[in-house]
Amino acid sequence: MSSDYLNNNKESEIRYEILTKPIFRLLIKKAVPTIIGMLVTVIYNLTDTFFVSLLDNSSMIAAIGVVFSFLSIIQAIGFWFGYGSGNIMSKKIGEKNTEEAEIFSTIGIIFAIVSGILIAIFSRIYVLPLSRVLGGFASNELFIFTVEYLKVIIISIPFSLYAITIYNQLRLCGNAKDGMIGLLIGMVVNLIFDPIFIFSLEYGFVGSAYATLIGHIIACITLTILAGKKRNTFSKMKKIKFTKSRIYHVLLGGIPNFARQSITSISLILLNTVSAQYGDSMIASMTISTRILAFAQMIAIGWCQGFQPICAMNYGAKQYERVKKAFNYTVFVGTIFLVISSLILFIYAQDLIGIMTSDNEVLMMGSHILRLQCIVMPLLGYYAVSGMYMQNIGKYFIAMIITISRQGIFFIPLLYIMSEIFGKNGIYLLQPISDTMSFILAFILVKKYKDDSY
């Protein structure tokens, strides 16, 4: 990121605003673009699921769920580089060390580009075994659809990693608006091309993958143009020095996000593998219910992410009372929203699932899964912000423990224990129990370490 960008009037205004303006109003301003950005990701997934559901084949819906676990791993890597570089950039801006912020931006982007190209190459070479590992072996039809979809999605990996990295750098440095616009344009393109490829051009199921690919490419181009108005990253690449300290901050600073997202991906793969014994309908019902829940969950997480630049920049400026106040506001509002959302989703669970499928078995299983998860969803408000808080104040290890607990420390062992003891009912209860246990752990760790940070 160029010093012109970091030293311009807008950058100074952002820093002044975050360090001085009323906290609650600031949270709303920073969270709204982030919430929209999170919803764009959800709509990406729901759009594909909706249009594919019109083909009336549960194996196709299940294939999208299988490939989604792979896409989550790609997102995890993007979050790793984006959060790692963006978080330390925000701190450096708070310290008025703009030259270092510029260097961290470029390092994060270089990591994203190189990793994206390498992952795409190896994924294409090993696409068949990859499809099996992801859980696409429940039936021959599911495996065929998974391979077809994955071949197209693999092409988008370098674009996706690059875009996610830039988006998070912009967001964590207080410029979430441009990041949101880039993602929003990509989502609209995907929404337009889904029915065109699937129905008009008669690509069928794989048409949704092409629409997603084009959406990723357009989002990448748009973010590059928007970021290019304020910085000139690429001209600095040859001058960057990869010191141990800089690599440490980018890689370790992004580890909590990478760990959370990658553990989520692994847990999805394992869940698909275990659930395969119950057929494609079980995987399809979990795919649909998860996407519906994601609407409320991503809004809550987006709200919590609005807290991050406020926390990091004020912490870097040693304004600890503002950090505490922001934490409390974020938890309170997030929890209230999730309580209301849970009630609505619980009441209308069957109607919402019915929008995505006409299969009676998928409808009943999906409704049951959705209602059970609604019972504990309000706990996500505190849980989400606690990991972000620990990450922003530099307690990376504690943040990592919190972020991997929900889908890793508790979810994965319980998956095998509960499915073995309770069968299909164990899978239904898996996420609610895991959410409860991870909330308790987060509460204990934040209570223990919060006051020691000031």
In short, what is this structure?
The chain crosses the membrane at residues 31-55, 61-83, 103-122, 142-167, 179-199, 205-226, 247-271, 283-305, 326-348, 368-385, 397-416, 428-446. The chain has helices at 3-7, 9-20, 23-53, 58-94, 98-125, 127-133, 140-153, 157-172, 176-200, 207-228, 244-275, 280-316, 320-347, 349-356, 360-376, 380-392, 396-409, 411-422, 424-449. It is an all-alpha fold and 454 residues long.
Structure description:
The chain is mostly helical and 454 residues long. It has one domain. 85% of the residues lie in helices and 0% in strands. It contains 19 helices and no strands. Helix 16 runs antiparallel to helix 17. The chain is globular and about 55 Å long. The N terminus is likely disordered. InterPro entries: MATE_fam (IPR002528), MATE_MepA-like (IPR045070), MATE_MepA_subfamily (IPR051327), MdtK-like (IPR048279). Keywords: Antibiotic resistance, Cell membrane, Membrane, Transmembrane, Transmembrane helix, Transport. Belongs to the multi antimicrobial extrusion (MATE) (TC 2.A.66.1) family. MepA subfamily. Pfam families: MatE.
Topology diagram in text:
Elements (H helix, E strand, L loop, with lengths): L2 H5 L1 H12 L2 H31 L4 H37 L3 H28 L1 H7 L6 H14 L3 H16 L3 H25 L6 H22 L15 H32 L4 H37 L3 H28 L1 H8 L3 H17 L3 H13 L3 H14 L1 H12 L1 H26 L5
Helix pairs in contact: 3-4, 3-9, 3-12, 4-5, 4-7, 4-8, 4-11, 4-12, 5-8, 6-7, 7-10, 8-9, 8-10, 9-10, 11-17, 11-18, 12-13, 12-15, 12-16, 13-15, 13-16, 14-15, 15-19, 16-17, 16-19, 17-19, 18-19
Q: Report the structural category.
A: mainly alpha
Query: Share of helix among residues?
Result: over 70%
Q: What is the approximate shape?
A: globular
Strand runs, count: 0
What is the terminal-to-terminal distance? 30 Å
Rg from alpha-carbon coordinates: 21 Å
Number of structural domains:
1
H/E topology pattern: HHHHHHHHHHHHHHHHHHH
Oligomer: single chain
Uncertain spans: 1-7
Number of helices: 19
Mean pLDDT: 86
What's the story with the biggest beta sheet? none
Measured by DSSP, the beta-strand proportion falls in: under 5%
